[in-house]
Design brief:
CATH topology: Alpha-Beta Plaits
Order of helices and strands: EHEEHEH
Largest sheet: 4 strands, antiparallel
CATH class: Alpha Beta
Radius of gyration: 14 Å
Strand content: 35-45%
Helix content: 25-40%
Strand order of the largest sheet: 2-3-1-4
Distance between the termini: 19 Å
């Protein structure tokens, strides 16, 4: 297992996702952030079931940076409770993981 993780973050629109992604990469909190449009999210919020279009960000970073990444997302995000979920990268191409580590150091 590596020290690397992927972090899932949703946003209400591509423009906001782009702003967050640029801040994370510029701040070296993520090596790369993919932005996936046309995500449909069904969730419960404040006692009501919501069904909304969202944008999904997939950030690649180090486990040790997740708390700082989450704090930066919270600063920039329009949601009161933004989704920030980190999943471990169990294995990956050595040269890619090496690059990921270099870009988040």
């Amino acid at each position: 297992m590596t020290d690397h993780v992927v972090v899932l973050i949703t946003a209400p629109a591509e423009e906001e996702a782009g702003k967050i992604a640029h801040a994370l990469v510029t701040g070296r909190l993520a090596a790369c952030v993919n932005i996936v449009k046309n995500v449909r999210s069904v969730y419960r919020w404040q006692g009501k079931v919501e069904d909304e279009a969202e944008v999904l960000m997939i950030a690649k970073t180090r486990r040790s940076l997740v708390a700082a990444l989450a704090a930066r997302v919270k600063e920039l995000h329009s949601y009161t409770v933004p989704e920030v979920i980190a999943l471990p990268i169990v294995e990956g191409a050595g040269d890619y993981l090496g690059w990921l580590g270099e870009e988040t150091s």
